[in-house]
């Protein structure tokens, strides 16, 4: 009788067509272990089967790129023989089920992706999205996720320097937890997962294997329904102290000449790590599963191959280096076991209790995974809302106060104060500004890191929204004085089998591609999370972009804090008062309408280059990019950060209605404060960049045209109150 | 009535604290500890006198607050 029934195949998330391909590749019926391996290797999470076709269209090359997508993380050249290694990855589904451990193990997983390549992690970033604040689950999820991110990151001793937190009803049943790590390595000491050398030992290090998260990778690729509670597999629990030991042990081992290839065991654990290593080196592997360090009694080969226990690595050593590696792992109190060897068979042979329990061809399984060209329909264009279509605010200052006290505009201090953002001693700019800035240890250089996405734009117009997400990180990085180098992307979408969702994906990729090309800002790593749907209701399309930029002289950076009283505020970039899909329209008029703003990529680049040159020249006292809430919100951010008043003055020649001018979300804009505005305006004219004086710093109050006066202290109190009050609720 | 509740990690869930206890006991010279698992003990003094009703209430407390039922089990002892 056959061990594999159609029900078992279906339970493994393999459809009929795919199962036919399994039979063809195997030349026989697989056993349960083999089927399990197919199932995780061909899950959306590991195989990118719906997204591959489109991801390939993104630009991934440039003189700064040392390694693009395909490895554990992307690698870029940052000069002085150093490289920055970074990636962003989602842990959405596990965080919804167990917010603390889900978020914690998300941080742990992305750290491993980075240090497995030889980098010491130096900065973490977290992009978090939750359901509406009034939803009964939201508070609990925020509390657990933030504590989990902090708990793991703080224990491991890596600063969390930037991130975002957003609320929207579309995330009620599917929160997003996207974690990014940036690491620092020597450019000539990068480690990859490419196995080589027949007979070389395959070594397991780290924690023992338990029955954690079996089928986590397939869960991450399935929609939730109301029965998800019942189907919940054992949640992975993170152990940050072991992770810290693993970082130090791996970096120490990397100093020796012992490693051929190294790969962390992430989703689909031992299966994906061993397959990926063997496949990229076109090798075979023989594993003796009796040697796998086990936490529990009676584990089956199926459980061992599919376990997602945390804090584990797989290493191919050079021959004869076992004792050296073992002594380093012993010193750090980590398990070490030789569990197999490389062969030239190009097959994965699994042995248990002396029997061969699994035998699979490697290349066909890893490379001939299904690739779908899913049907898609473009998102229909939405009617725009014009500046003249909105009511003039009765009091613009009061409108600003309401806006700055709203859930999505309020201060995130409550969140980032739970993260250690100063550990390692190299943090130059803390969270709360445009980008986090960390010094490249022992040098004058620094890295700027940020994450951003505006999902409501992506919903209204995926192409514009995709471009905007990339451009906004470019702007964040520029506003601190850094040169944007490359991005990582975390594509969070609904069910790709629905053509309108696939259309959102395709549109966002198109916009991202345009922006990356225009800004010389390639994609070097990324992650895709699909099926973020509950009961057929998908999340807003959320392509989160993580950007990294370089500051050559860390003395020449800008912050959002004014230098002194009497400085001029200069607005860089054109303002037509785009109010469609703006925060103002949503919060003040309760309308979520209109189209996303256009990103003029040529202007984006020109304005960015200009602002950067002014910061590098040391002319600028402070700088902030404009995004949600437009000019008014940017002024408020700066006044609050500076604890100093400011008066905004609308230039006489501006014809845009005042409310749209203040709150419109036109792209490619920055606000600069400067003592001598004349020379800046001259330089801007020479560079062909629009620049206008729109205000002056000083006093204790903020005043807007068409509005009353509010003290900065009151504005700050409103801005900082929402989050702690909500969480105390 | 007293309700005594033991909350323990489910079988198979990693217990970093238990692991640290086991490791430290070993380094203090206490040999022969094969495994340590730690949990928590909660004692409630409740006004309810009917055992069935008390059990129902305490179970609800465990489900809602005292245990994280995704990764933890609980057991309840009642004593008049």
From TrEMBL, chain B:
Enzyme class: ligase
GO CC annotations on file: cytoplasm
Source domain of life: Bacteria
Metabolic or biological pathway, per its Swiss-Prot or TrEMBL entry: Purine metabolism; IMP biosynthesis via de novo pathway; 5-amino-1-(5-phospho-D-ribosyl)imidazole from N(2)-formyl-N(1)-(5-phospho-D-ribosyl)glycinamide: step 1/2
A GO molecular-function descriptor: ATP binding
UniProt record similarity statement: Belongs to the PurS family.
UniProt-recorded name of the protein: Phosphoribosylformylglycinamidine synthase subunit PurS
Species this chain originates from: Kiloniella spongiae
